[in-house]
Specification:
lipid biosynthesis; Beta-ketoacyl_synthase; nine-stranded mixed beta sheet; PKS_Beta-ketoAc_synthase_dom; alpha+beta; 13 helices; globular; two-stranded antiparallel sheet
């Protein structure tokens, strides 16, 4: 089986539109939250979101191409372009049928649905945009990345709600391990801060109604009240080690393990004993040949809902045993909110950067200890420390659990 390494990264996030500014924002505990600007929230309980700022699609693609893409696809193309450039992939020197894509979205475009449904009601079916379907469907992130960069290999879209980005990177890893591709462009993208998206998650009582950005997204805090919706994209370039070495690529880290399970329990609540998430972590460690005590850091799913943080804490204890109390844990969502299908992409990048720079960022906003959440969630400030091995967790509605294990690259 081929070893899989990370050679490029790209990110569009609420705290920065490239990996460097995103990572620097995390180190500085920069919060991406503010009042929702995309629509009038007068009648909505949730007033805050983590919107992407100053994004101009024309910086990343020609205007005609941008017009034929909804925002989630634009974010995907932008982040994928950054990642390919970072990796130094020259498609003129590659067999395009050996370079694949697994950049996925959990939802696709609610904007297109809302806009065209209004037209349908007001003006009739004849006025609906002929491009509605290809603008709306979630696989168009992968489709557009493939078209923009001439990637002709395996092109797939994994939809597992909030675990989408993590499953996408894991399935891309498997594609390389099994020789289906030499290179995979993989990650997640999402843009669902719309009336329907916010109303729907609010009706589920999943969103925080806090109006203070400092106390809105506070994973593992006793006063947590739900998540804050974010948007953006996180995309990485994965390669077989052999292919990366042959072209002299810079190697950031090795993606060594992937575990995926289902709770088979409830459509929105994780299993109350955390067993499904725990098994995903165990499978990722087994896949990588890593013992629990070798794990230095876990980037938690850490949404800030009462159930998630409690059950994920139990899961970490089940998966790591006594070592759970020694491992550093944090939630990137404390600064960028919950990017839904893109969360796993940007959080995987956070793990790679933590290994590269020897730093674990703080869980911003965590102030009031919850006796039931009693692990080390990196309260206060970030910590400079050696990170040799990290796990990134994502848990999605429907009971989908996914864990990626990434470690420092060694020959």
């Amino acid at each position: 089986m081929n070893r899989v390494v990370v050679t490029g990264m790209g990110a569009i996030t609420p705290i920065g539109n490239d990996v460097e500014s995103f990572w620097n924002g995390l180190k500085e505990k920069k919060l991406g939250f503010g009042p929702i600007t995309y629509f009038d929230t007068t009648d909505y309980k949730a007033k805050l979101a983590a919107e992407v700022k100053n994004f101009d699609p024309k910086q990343y693609m020609d205007p005609k191409a941008a017009r034929r893409m909804e925002v989630f696809s634009q974010y995907a193309v932008a982040a994928a372009g950054q990642a390919l450039k970072d990796a130094g992939i020259d498609m003129e020197k590659e067999d395009p049928y050996r370079v694949g894509v697994c950049v996925s979205s959990g939802i696709g475009s609610l904007q297109a649905v809302e806009r065209e449904y209004k037209k349908l009601l007001d003006k009739g079916p004849g006025r609906v945009n002929p491009l509605l379907v290809p603008l709306m469907i979630s696989n168009m992130a992968a489709g557009n990345v493939s078209i923009q960069f001439g990637l002709k290999g395996k092109s797939i879209n994994v939809v597992t709600a909030c675990a989408t980005g993590t499953h996408s990177i894991g399935e891309a890893m498997r594609s390389i391990q099994h020789g289906e591709a030499d290179v995979m462009v993989a990650g997640g993208t999402e843009s669902s801060i719309t009336p329907t998206g916010v109303a729907g998650f609010t009706a589920l009582t999943a969103l925080s109604s806090a109006t203070d950005p400092e106390r809105a997204s506070i994973p593992f805090d006793a006063e947590r009240s739900g998540f804050v919706m974010g948007e953006g994209a996180g995309v990485v370039v994965l390669e077989s080690l052999e292919h990366a070495k042959a072209r002299g690529a810079k190697i950031y880290a090795e993606l060594a393990g992937y575990g995926a399970t289902s709770d088979a329990y409830h459509i929105t609540s994780p299993a109350e004993d955390g067993s499904g998430a725990a098994m995903a972590m165990k499978f990722a460690m087994e896949d990588a040949g890593v013992k629990p005590e070798e794990v230095d850091y876990i980037n938690a799913h850490g949404t800030g809902t009462h159930h998630n943080d409690l059950f994920e804490t139990l899961a970490i204890k089940t998966a790591l045993g006594d070592h759970a109390y020694n491992v550093k844990i944090n939630s990137t969502k404390s600064m960028v909110g919950h990017l839904l299908g893109a969360a796993g992409g940007v959080e995987f990048i956070t793990c790679v950067k933590s290994i590269e720079e020897g730093f674990v960022h703080a869980t911003a906003g965590l102030q009031v200890d919850d006796p039931e959440c009693d692990l080390d969630y990196t309260k206060g400030d970030g910590v400079a420390m050696e990170v040799r091995c990290a796990i990134s967790n994502s848990l999605g509605f429907g009971g989908h659990n996914a864990s990626l294990l990434v470690k420092r690259f060694e020959e």
